[in-house]
Amino acid sequence: MNFEQYKKAVELLNLYSYHYYLLDDAITTDEVYDKLYHEVLEYEINHKEDVLKNSPTQRVGDAISEGFVKAPHLSRMWSLEDAFNSQDLEKWLTKTYKLDKNITFYCEPKYDGASLNLIYENGDLIQAITRGDGEIGELITQNVKTIRSVPLSIKHKDKIEIRGEVVIYKDEFEKINQERAKNGEALFANPRNAAAGSLRQLDSKITASRNLVFLPYGVGENTLEHKLLSQKMEYIYSLGFKNPPLRATCKDFDEIETVYGEMNKNRDSYEMMLDGMVVKVDEIAAQIDMGYTVKNPRFSVAYKFPAVEKITTIKEIVLQVGRTGAVTPVAIVEPTNIDGVIVERATLHNFDEIARKDIRLHDKVIILRSGDVIPKIIKVLTHERDGSEVEYKRPTTCPVCQSELLDEGVLLKCQNLTCEARVINSIIYFASKPCLNIDGLGSKIVEALFNSGVVSSVVDLFDLTLEKLLALEGFKEKKAQNLLDALDNAKGCEYWRFVNSLGIEHIGEVASKTLSAKFGSGFLDATKEQIVALEGIGEEMAESVLEFARVNRETILKLQTILKPLEPIKREEAKENPFKGRSVVLTGSMSESRDVIKEMLERLGAKVASSVSKKTDFVIYGEDAGSKYDKAMDLGVACLNEDEMRGKIEQT
Ligand code: IVH
User: Closest residue (by CA) to atom 23 of ligand 1?
Assistant: First the structure.
């Protein structure tokens, strides 16, 4: 790197951090940023006279935005030095052992969210402050009070700062984005942005609706006298804060590596996103001795996990037609290795999303892959365009059957019921887990059966014979017999599985259960009034059932004769009691599993629903009750705890 290149690199880093910190809108990946940062640092170490004042290495903390009232932290909030691989960790250990030989380590997750400082006085939460520049942050106490994992009071009376990370769990993040996609709103790029954005809402009701979670990782000002950080943290957890999914004390490099390996291996199964593991010197006295550099404590290091975000190029946009005819665009990207998995496709959600992000063919983009999150494009690098990019045109015909598409705005739909893609996907859905759960009938086999002409509808599946299967490529005796057995096993399934497998639009597992429990095979003749009277079923869903039954009556009856799904057992009429005919919602953990309690209430004639509405009569809550309890309070719905519920039952 020469001076000219160094100047350019500093400019670029500043541009990246402006987008990241000020606009909450990253234009590159952490990996690219870190690499460039280290190149700049290396240049500066060798050319001390050239160091620019505005180099990010000279910055201690970052600017804070206007909008909320500012408030100082009682003691500074630091950042962490990074280690990207075992060599980095080894270097950090060597450096740290030089300061003190007799140390051990406390390891915990590095959560990917927004940092937060909680100040408690006389046991009460008095202030919640964002990190800001490390000295001064934004006062967001009202918003933070809506986070249920932040205790409003603790049994520790001395003044104390408790630091931690606010995160959004991955499933909650997917739900928020699905909802936003449905409403045509811009999607959050990742759970970190969603958490940070939700914390800084001017309306704390929005914060409350996002189900944020606070995970403590340390203390600022405090009077605690524990000798070890691990003891201090146990004390903090015992005050009513959440435990990390994994924590450990380690003696040396090997033990740290083992815990790191375990955490990295399991990271997809954790509810929150992690971007590494933090290693901290466990002995508090040693921590105090070691002190701080301008930016970081010398006694901790962030041992990062391999990146989940990468930069790649869009080669093509292809269209997928689902069983309902909905057409979904998918980006085919230059194959990229992300954390050991080669990613070649990324979801684009819908056509509005392409237009909103202005995604073009040949664009450079940032893609994110993380465990259960489908790879997706989180950013188009418009500043990298060179004119070769091609705008994407909304299709007007089905890519599979060429029939004209129905344009519903956000969604495009193929309306041809015999469209090959729709038929194949309906069969795949029919056999899937929440439907008939037919082993050995995955997408590859369904496609093969369809393409060979042996199966062109779900009914044909049950005409398969050993002979027909053996004539197909890839089928040997055993595999063929297994498939026939699995098909046979589907006979006599629960009635709701049968309803669900039909793939009626807007009718998922829960609605299938509701319909089946009420009507059984009578659902084909139920009237609109009878259907909308069911909890959780609205107009649109009812109409969908009626329309489906009208068009497909013959096929449904034929399938029913073949499958003989079990008629649900009609309950005897319950005797009079306070829950009979009432709509009840359960939330939080109780002395028995929720299913057991649900069953008990249903025997009493209650309808147990999953969400709270004005129609709800009672919310029964256990420990850790969440947003359903709050909603009930808002709507003025009667809330009972488990004992009160049992009391009412016993009285009858
Ligand atoms: S300790 C003493 N521990 O990472 C240094 N930080 O770059 C203070 N973070 O701003 C941080 N998980 O928001 C620490 N287990 C953990 C963490 C953690 C996430 C965040 C924190 C901080 C940033 C450090």
Answer: 79
Give domain status of residue 629, yes or no.
Answer: yes
- Residue 111 belongs to what domain range? 72-304
For ligand 1, mutation pick of 115, 274, 284, 304 (most atoms within 8 Å of CB) = 115
C-beta 110 within 6 A of ligand 1: yes
Asked if residue 182 is part of any domain, the answer here is: yes
- Using the mean position of ligand 1's atoms as its centre, give its distance from the Cα of residue 274 in Å: 11
- Average pLDDT of 495-508? 94
Q: Do 272 and 191 fall into the same domain?
A: yes
Q: Would 66 be classed as within a structural domain? A: no
Mean pLDDT for the stretch of residues 111-118: 95
Confidence of residue 60 (pLDDT cuts 50, 70, 90): very low
Section 175-189 average pLDDT: 82
Residues 79 and 26 in one domain: no
Of 208, 124, 198, nearest in space to 634 by CA: 208
Q: Write out pLDDT tens, residues 183-224.
A: 878 788 778 889 998 998 888 888 888 889 999 999 999 999
Contact between 52 and 8 (Cβ < 8 Å):
no
Is 161 close to ligand 1, i.e. is its CB under 6 Å away?
no
Q: Report the atom number in ligand 1 closest to the C-alpha of 244.
A: 15
Residue whose CA is closest, atom 14 of ligand 1? 217
Give strand ranges (E) for 210-340. Answer: 212-219, 248-250, 274-281, 300-304, 309-321, 326-338
Could you give the number of structural domains in the chain? 6
Residues 91 and 178 in one domain: yes
Per-residue 3-state assignment (H helix, E strand, C coil) for 70-111: EEECCCCCCCCEEECCHHHHHHHHHHHHHHCCCCCEEEEEEE
Q: Is the CB of 276 under 6 A from ligand 1?
A: no
Judge if the beta carbon of residue 297 lies within 6 A of ligand 1. yes
Residue with the smallest CA separation from ligand 1 atom 1 is 217
* Whether residues 260 and 343 fall in one domain: no
pTM of the shown model: 0.56
The answer on pLDDT for 381 being more than 90 is yes
Averaged confidence pLDDT in the chain: 90
Query: What are the tens digits of pLDDT across the range 317-355?
Result: 999 999 999 999 999 999 998 876 789 999 888 898 899
Residue 402 included in any domain: no
> Which of 232, 230, 195 has its CA nearest to residue 106?
230
